[in-house]
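Notes taken during the Thursday session

The instructor put the following on the board and asked us to keep it in front of us for the whole hour. The protein is Transposase of ISAar20, ISL3 family. We were told not to look anything up and to reason only from what is written here. First, the residues (451 in total):
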Amino acid sequence: MPDATFTRPDLTTFTRLDGLGLEVTGQLLEPDRSVLACRVVEPDDWCRRCGCQGVPRDTVSRELAHEPFGWRPTTLVLTVRRYRCKECSHVWRQDTTAAAPPRAKISRAGLRWGLVGIVVGHLSMARVAEGMGVAWNTANDAVLAEGRRLLIEDPTRLDGVKVVGVDEHVWRHTRRGDKYVTVIIDLTPVRDGTGPSRLLDVVEGRSKKAFKDWLAERDQAWRDGIEVVAMDGFAGFKTATTEELPDAVTVMDPFHVIRLAGDALDECRRRVQQELHGHRGRKGDPLYTARRTLHTGADLLTDRQHERLDKLFAGDRHVHVECTWGIYQRMISAYRHPDRAAGRVEMSSVIDALAEGVPEALVELRKLGRTLTRSACDVLAYFDRPRTSNGPTEAVNGRLEHLRGLALGFRNLTNYIARALLEAGGFRPHLHPHLGRARSRFACRRGWCSR
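Then, after some discussion, the predicted structure tokens were revealed:
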């Protein structure tokens, strides 16, 4: 580093205590932690009651957990001076709110470090508590409260939402209590191609009432701005959207539509397997061997897979599976068609073909036809509004599954909702260390840092 200019070591600046209104007066290195003795820089010797100048009386100490350096827990021991007013005898302490909130056990820099670790580093709360040398409950309560105050409760967080995705999510795999929640996702960045989706909220339950009540809590101007709602085939979400967002267009996304067709194909394959062999599929059975090949798009099949299907459909034994597979492939090709208008025509013809004239023996296709006929408008609406798939919603669900595994499970739904919003709420650009300008503007606007 030939061009570098070195200055005198300054522990106050290195530990970023100058932004907290503190100055380091000593240090103590222990095997499991480091302790920094600090004093408050500002004297604060004017009486808050009568306005007269006070005189020093004595000092008290206050301990705060600070951000770790080299993953060594750092503790701040603040020497806080007390003053006594010469006129009214009022006694007060130096103001330390720049260093930490009242009665807090963690400094503001420590809270920021923990929040960045949770949101950006995807650390577990146990790892954050270990890094600051505090108990898990202490770290959890303080960091989540800071996350709610600075990020989750931001009044502008829901601004600009035009496309919403809604789906159910299993938040805990136990038999006790309600284990389902409703997740609401902002799909506007995905549709506009400006970024990934983000989690807007998590609501307890998976019913029409849960989604309807959440929409009713939003102001009318926000609801009027919603253009599209992407969802699965659950009628409760559809009804709630119709009642609370009458001008919004409901879209049944391709993921769930193709999944319905795939389920029909699996049910047909299992039924034919039982009718022909009298048992479930086993190794060596043609239908069982081709179970994955049947779910592969026709344009992605290899030569070997083509030969396997030609052999499977050579006779009339598997004609029901062949018919169901043909409908499945037509639906996939409709979604993959480069011309949206032509794809819409193809999907409409599939729905019309399944609506009537399907033989009674093809029970799976008849059931699929009834479902698609009821939701025909929602299915076809996707072709008029591309990139409004609920696939990003499933991606957020996957991130929440990872979060639950990282934390080894959750027992408190309130903590889970807060952690889920911090994990998938789109807050990383505000906290990412390489986005300094955006982070500084955000921090100053929220009154986060004083430096």
